[in-house]
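INTERNAL AUDIT FORM
Audit reference: QA-55
Scope: verify that the stored structure record matches its stored sequence.
Auditor: D.O.
Record contents follow.
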Amino acid sequence: MNEAWLAAAPSVLIAIGVVLLPGAAVIAAGWGLRSVTAWLFAPAVSLAVVAVAATAAPLAGLSWSPLPVAIVAATTAAVAFAVRRWVGCTEAPVPWDAPAAPSRRTAAPIAAAVGLVAAAATIATQLAIVFGDPENISQTFDAIVHLNAVRLILDTGDASIFTVGSASDIDFYPNGWHSVVTLVAQLGGGGVALAVNAANIAIGAVVWPASALALAAAVFAARPAALALTAALTTGFGAFPLLLLDFGVLYPNYTAYAVLPAGIAAVWLLLRTRGRDRLRTALLLVTVCAAIGISHPNAFLALYALTVAGIAWILGAAAFTERTRAAVTVAAVTIPALALVGVGLWRFGRTNEEMSGWGAWQSSAQAFGEAALVAPRGYPITVTTALLLILGIVVVVRRPARWALAGIPFAAAALLFIVVSGLPVGTQIRDLLTNPWYNDSYRLAALLPIAAIPVAVLGALVLIDLLNRAARRARWTEPVRMGVVALAAAAAFSVAVGPNVTATMHAAQGAYRLDGSAALLTEDEQILLDRLDETLPADAVLIVNPWTGGSLAYALAGREVLELHVFGTRTDDEEYVDAHLADIDDDPRVCEAVDRLGAEYVLDFGSQNVFDSKNSGTERSGINDLEPSDRLVLVDAEGDDARLFRIEGC
């Protein structure tokens, strides 16, 4: 495995460049080099630039490549530089500055940089262990459409939301994740599977911890200890990022949630910014919202859900304490407006009954406990994170005026999780609150670490402050105190091997294992796909069953198939062939339909489907377990259930 990952390292580094460089150019132009807080937004800005460029490129007549990204990045950087000049500051004003104390001004960027590198290395290792091999795919239902969408973008040179949507025959679909993956494939030269895993490592190991650090910088004024602890804690929860790479697979939500902490941070910073710099911070918020929304719209709703109460709290408190006309007016106008926006978002974001039928996991009492300790799905508790969370919750409850912005998002995330996983299907409040997430407990469980980390950091800071007071009484020197804090932060990384994470990793490994029992694509089927260049003419069109992994011949081997996804729109001829191809020797209608479709080959991957259910895929049973005949000529086979047939005599 080590040799395989060493060979994959260039693609991983390219993916990291894709999620860092465009945003870095914008941040450098808009904030300069001194603001540690601003630089932590670079990955979020990169995702916005890449996703917007992907949809804008075809409108400008450009094929998808790094060129549209460079154009959008340069344009955005120019705007950022102009706004910076208009703000009129050579150095970033509060709240963008590092802490005021000279020692902290030096320590903050070091803590952020070292913490980010350590978190990136740790999470990258976790993900590599889960994936097993850099060419392994997720053996899950949603992987079919996502991998085929990547291939479609590479073939058409169009990464817009409309092209991604066409992979599953819908009008449009979020393209943030697909845009990053296709750039990695183009620049790295590897296959789709390698590009997918490399991009996922970059998103999980760089975008996620950087965004979490941005939130820590906003909540804790870039305190070095808070930054170091946040970096450590991003490695210590199984519910994110690991869970979304196991279930689904939910690549778009995974990408959007990785940026979500940066969105929360931008909201909190906007509330604290004064003067002309409000425009710059507001534009940053809009940019991060674009990254979130284009990656997955329900993550934008999550941003609203986790911040709306905090906004109301801050504005209401300002109106009550300042008692100025301006403060009262802002609160009186903004709070009702936010309520109306929420109504509109929830109405727009509703999903239909067929898509939102996911059931509850447990009782509401069990859900409360899992939410409080961020151990959903019955995963074991890591004692360190549990104790820090409990202590942090106590601090928030005792001092809500000071720590509301740390506690409110966690309370909102916990409420959503308790409702969706602890209330039965059909409960009105459940459908009202959690329908935009398909009433899916997995998607809302993944929000818990995002919102919980600031609370856990707060709990850790209480302990560090107690230690510092004891150190001052003992007259420890500043270097000694900083060394102790550094050791504490290093020890905090032990959560990366805690039972909560290791149990989630073990469960997720099953979704990437390539063997004879793999749910979507078995080892024999993969070997057969690898030989298609030798066994098929270049212009061959394949009849496939998406349920059994046959449609991945397009994503992984670049061969044209009739159906890209299970729920794609089928013609009458496709439906008839799917149901009756086995009768081709006796039913002349089958040959007639095959001729109209222009297909000459069939991939038969047996009857095992991705859900391992006899009730799934029955509408395509006519192309499973075929027998060689006069009109179905066996061309290639691997094992018992991976076979390629040529249709003759039609």
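Auditor finding: record pair retrieved intact. The CA atoms of residues 240 and 449 lie 6 Å apart.
Action required: none
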